[in-house]
TrEMBL record:
It comes from Streptomyces tamarix. This is DEAD/DEAH box helicase. Pfam families: DEAD (PF00270), Helicase_C (PF00271), MZB (PF09369), WHD_HRQ1 (PF22982). InterPro entries: DEAD/DEAH_box_helicase_dom (IPR011545), Helicase_ATP-bd (IPR014001), Helicase_C-like (IPR001650), Helicase_put_actinobac (IPR022307), HRQ1_WHD (IPR055227), MZB (IPR018973), P-loop_NTPase (IPR027417). Keywords: ATP-binding, Helicase, Hydrolase, Nucleotide-binding. Residues 108-294 form the Helicase ATP-binding domain. One of its GO terms (molecular function) is helicase activity.
């Protein structure tokens, strides 16, 4: 029997291809922002005072496991480079900004010198202004040197909301410059009647990689004048471009560079990120260009009080009698309500859309008991809302009408939410980079701020709140992306050929794997070789082969059955787990039950209801080894890395009582299986190791299963992923290895680099896994150490003590972590 844990997304492979066994800051940096006046009744309590008030209620002080105090920091000024136009400097002064910080001036100097540069300084350090000064200067120069549009610039952000926020800031900043600066958003929400104006007249176009991939590049003849005059490409929040998404964006940027060269331009790339390790290396891999690094943050910073908060144990019992903690969702909702009562402007970040809705609803109910008007000042913000709903919430947040917001990471990135006093983080967001990005949303006017990480009942969160050094004494993670992933590269080669025939000279731009893939694409009937290059042969749009978010199919529409009203969408890859029949769906504070899921039509029909429970899908997984790329001895066992095929099927869902998480029942489902070819790390153990660890046959399955769950939970500390990007399977006797085996795999076609990172840090990774299990206060295993909420086997069997002994013996024979990257995968032959 195989015990498994599936990632949140399960993607289909690209149709014709198969693998064989082989921060950024506020939009405009307010360098000299006045404090809010106590005379106006708007004085802020200190962050320590706010935390003390939270801890004093309901005897909560024992829930704080650690408090970190980051002291304030003075700023260091410089002067703008001489080449920044006086009109631009005057506009910056009129916006309330005096002298630039040193890093702003340095970055602007590199940009004006024609050097691509990445600005990697803290949240609210004025990165926007660092690139806007040279961009606006160049646009003004271009407006005077040429008739018509003149010089142009392109701005890319990972979300629509951030692009809209940036447009507001650029319009405000450039107002004194007249109509020579014409910013415009071009995305899926842009009305059709406005798009032609943007193409012809806008000289600062703000969009996202999705629209660049599907809209702008395939229609490049209509954008010819814009691309011909393109001088700068701004890539905001560049640390978000990681994994499969980042790999796709890297290839989209290479397609952009190729078309710019065809039109005679060679744009400079300006990248911004508040949180990145080795930013120049990551930026170079993303763009394919040499990039200068500016990482010495000269901006001032207010005091930050950062608390780690562990919800208490309840009297309830979970699966197999395990103790259960109060949920992070319920705890965060209470804290958000308490902050609102204090008048503390706050945002609560939560990982899931459903969680954001639930926190908002619970907080509103708590506040309604105090003041019904106050309850209306708390709302939810997440992806999947209709454009008009998102815009209304953003306006309410900017105006201060909203006092508290429960948000997904859609609000994490760069949107100007200045004025916030506190940030609540409901569960570790998966990486230290995201943690600091979210914490940095408070105190953005240079004043003190409070951040609270509320731990979920799972191995990683429990480990972190009791090991604060893992958060506060370690740098953020390196960005992991692999543009040479054949599942990523192949569709972009097709898209590039459709945009303009591929020549042999183009191939170096797309990486060393490109020449190997082209004959396979020709054999599949996707490309045709002619004397002048490789041509796209089909009538369909080549850009549709690649969904750069990695979803692979159109999103599922969520429709109210009685009225036909479209409520929102959910990614196709998540439909099996989130909108299956019987699933509870939350939208804008209202609860719906899914009555029917039509996978062929990509529609989920729902009706409004008020069930006293939430739902959690369960699945089963099997795995087969396609090829072992590399392996090293671990005692008498082995640690390996290579290609695997994973088959998954959602088989049932649990109904859990709201707030407590108590399981009320399980309902079977009949959904089709899905397959995934990806990359994995796995380790085997031998009979000798089992004997040394005193693990008998009756304990073996539970020991492997427990180690698998905990290792998945701890991997985000060592790779730039979260636990929902990865999956796992444990097997007492695997048919391919003929030994007890634990697999951890990337949840994306072709891999995303996470399993490879696990292979190279296996000693430290599995060492932390062993410590997390051994130090947990439970007797036989609980959600804080070895139980998983997504386990398809009902968290049975699990054996905590045997898992600790097994990992101890495994680590005894472990060599030092392997240096260097693993052997890259071979390109997939076309079938």
């Amino acid at each position: 029997m195989a015990f498994n844990h599936l990632p949140a997304t399960m993607h289909d492979a690209l149709g014709a291809l198969s693998v064989t066994p082989v921060t950024h800051s506020v939009p405009m940096a307010r360098n000299h922002r006045p404090s809010r006046s106590p005379e106006n009744g708007d004085a802020r309590p200190s962050p320590g005072t706010v935390l003390d008030r939270l801890a004093a209620r309901a005897n909560r002080a024992a829930r704080i496991t650690h408090t970190e105090h980051l002291p304030p920091r003075e700023g260091r000024h410089a002067v703008w480079p001489d080449r920044v136009r006086p009109e631009v400097i005057d506009a910056i002064h009129q916006a309330g900004v005096g002298h630039p910080w040193t890093h702003q001036a340095t970055a602007a100097e590199h940009a004006l010198d024609g050097e691509s540069v990445v600005i990697a300084t803290g949240t609210a350090s004025g990165k926007s202004l660092a690139y806007l000064a040279p961009v606006l200067t160049t646009l003004l120069d271009g407006s005077e040197a040429a008739n018509g549009r003149g010089t142009t610039a392109l701005y890319l952000s990972p979300t629509k909301a951030l692009a809209a926020d940036q447009r507001r800031a650029v319009r405000s900043l450039s107002a004194p410059l007249g109509n020579r600066i014409r910013p415009a958003v071009y995305d899926g929400d842009t009305p059709v009647e406005e798009r032609e104006w943007v193409r012809q007249y806008a000289n600062y176009v703000l969009t996202n990689p999705d629209m660049l991939h599907r809209g702008i590049l395939p229609s490049h003849p209509r954008w010819a004048s814009f691309l011909r005059a393109l001088r700068y490409v701004v890539i905001d929040e560049c640390h978000t471009y990681r994994g499969v998404f980042g790999s796709h964006v890297a290839q989209v940027l290479r397609r952009l560079r190729r078309l710019c060269a065809r039109y005679g331009s060679d744009p400079v790339f300006l990248l911004a990120s508040a949180t990145a390790a080795e930013p120049a290396v990551a930026a170079s891999r993303l763009t394919g260009l040499p990039v200068r690094e500016v990482a010495d943050d000269a901006s001032p910073r207010g005091e930050l009080v950062f608390a780690l908060w562990e919800p208490p144990l309840t009297e309830l019992e979970g699966e197999n009698g395990a103790p259960v903690r109060r949920t992070a969702t319920a705890e965060t909702a209470d804290l958000l309500a308490d902050l609102a009562v204090q008048g503390v402007r706050s945002v609560a970040f939560v990982r899931s859309r459903r969680g954001a809705e639930l926190i908002s609803v619970i907080a509103q109910e708590r506040l309604a008991e105090v003041d019904r008007f106050l309850a209306r000042r708390v709302a939810a913000y997440r992806g999947g809302y209709l454009p008009e709903e998102r815009r209304a919430l953003e306006r309410a947040l900017h105006s201060g009408e909203l006092l508290g917001l429960a948000a997904t990471t859609a609000l994490e990135l760069g949107i100007d939410v200045s004025g916030l006093d506190a940030v609540l983080i409901a569960g570790y967001p998966g990486t230290r980079a995201s943690l600091w990005q979210q914490a940095g949303r408070a105190g953005r006017s240079g004043e003190g701020a409070l951040a609270v990480l509320v731990a979920r009942d799972d191995p990683l969160d429990t480990y972190l709140v009791h090991h604060p050094e893992a958060l506060f004494r370690r740098p953020v993670e390196s960005t992991v992306l692999d543009p040479d992933n054949p599942y990523v590269l192949a569709p972009h080669l097709c898209a590039a050929a459709a945009e303009s025939p591929l020549s042999d000279d183009d191939l170096a731009l797309f990486g060393p794997s490109a020449p190997e893939l082209l004959p396979q694409l020709e054999a599949a009937g996707l490309l045709r070789r002619r004397a002048s290059g490789w041509y796209w042969t089909r009538r369909e749009r080549a850009a549709d082969l690649a969904d750069i978010r990695g979803e692979g199919r159109s999103p599922v529409q969520i429709v109210e059955e009685g009225t036909g009203r479209l409520l929102g969408t959910v990614d196709a890859s998540a439909a099996h787990t989130t909108v299956h029949e019987g699933a509870v769906h939350l939208h804008q504070g209202r609860t719906y039950l899914v009555r029917h899921l039509d996978l062929e039509e990509s529609v989920a029909l729902v009706e409004q209801a008020d069930p006293p429970y939430s739902t959690t899908a369960r699945d089963t997984t099997s795995i087969s080894v396609l090829e072992t790329d590399t392996g090293i001895p671990w005692g008498s066992g082995r640690l390996c890395y290579g290609s695997v095929e994973v088959t998954n099927q959602v088989v049932s869902f649990l109904r859990r009582r709201l707030l407590t998480g108590e399981v009320l029942g399980e309902t079977k489902l009949d959904l089709p299986p899905r397959t995934l070819r990806t990359r994995a790390v796995w380790w085997t153990v031998t009979e000798d190791q089992l004997d040394a660890a005193r693990v008998n046959p009756e304990q073996l399955g539970g020991a492997l299963h427990a180690a698998e769950h905990a290792s998945i939970g701890l991997l985000p500390l060592f790779a730039t992923c979260d636990r929902w990007d990865i999956g796992g399977v444990s097997v007492p006797l695997h048919p391919d290895t003929l030994l007890p085996t634990v697999f951890v795999y990337d949840g994306h076609p072709g891999g995303a680099g996470f399993a490879e990172r696990a292979f190279h840090t296996a000693r430290a990774w599995l060492g932390a896994t062993r410590e997390a299990i051994a130090s947990c206060e439970c007797d036989a295993g609980c959600p804080s150490c070895i139980q998983s909420p997504k386990c398809g086997n009902g968290n049975d069997p699990l054996h905590k003590r045997a898992a600790v002994r097994l990992l101890t013996e495994l680590l005894r024979g472990a060599p030092q972590d392997p240096p260097g990257p693993a052997t890259p995968p071979e390109g997939p032959p076309v079938t």
